[in-house]
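Support reply, case 0932

Customer input (verbatim):
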Amino acid sequence: MPRSATRLFTLAKLSLLVGASALAGCQGDKTTADIPDGGTGTGTGTGTSTGTGTGTGGAGGMGTGGASGTVGAGGASATGGAGGTGGGGGMGSGGSGMGGSGMGGSGPLIVLDEPFDDDLAFTKTDGNGIAASFFAYAIDDYWGITDGASGGDFGNDMAPSLLPAYASFEGSFMVAQDMDADDLPLPVVMQWTGYDITGLVNLELGLTVAEAIAGDGLDDIDAADFLRVEAVVDGGTPITVLELRGDAASNGVLREDTNLDGIGDGGVAVGPTALAFTKSIGATGLALDVTITMSFNADDEDIAIDDLVVSGELP
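Our regenerated output:
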């Protein structure tokens, strides 16, 4: 065969190879990740591509390779690499990019958030199950919500002129001391009802608590003084999530009653600086009720609470 015919035959074969490899190189893979409602996620991935070619502007030239695929962010689709372009009469092959697929994580979902700015979200009853009201009977006999200064909600009474010194509270919070001085039957019960927990797992309850130092510097909390937090799931048996009591029959300090035997035994005493507790509820269901029951019945037997929060996660 003449040399010119051989050259034409070779160029024709190269052209066919260019078409086939360019089509193969343009097909970049991409993936998409699903992120649950209310969640956030990050995506990782790698994109690689290679391109070789011959004949840009003439035989023997190098073609342009395919671009690398871009990585998907937050589970978004990733874009594959573009195919390479060959030079005139040359052959180019482009690589396909591999995109990252993101797995979206779901953060805690807030079920109940009580900042104790007011009493609109919960009911209050006394020891006889009768509706109760906040009050301030005297400088050291009260139950209500303080704004951290000289105001707040103490029912029909003025806020106490002097409250114990608490630290690390922000804004309004609930306070109580010598709660039966106004003939209020104890214990009092605060209740939050009807919170949707459908499909949630790992339910947790958080509460911030403090107990002030008495004016005489002595400990005054008795074992009969207590704060109990209970959860009721789907109308079932109440679950004691947290209980605080005096660590002595009389004149002790407030501690967690970890074994629920009526005596505080936790390693950390509750003091005037806000102490945050986070406890597992240990149950799942459809609806959640929460109650706080408490009784502090003498001078210098006080309590401050804030930030009641229940959260859960999607499985």
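We compared this against your earlier run and they match. Two observations from our side: The two ends are 73 Å apart (CA to CA). The helical segments are 3-25. Please reopen the case if you see a mismatch on your end.
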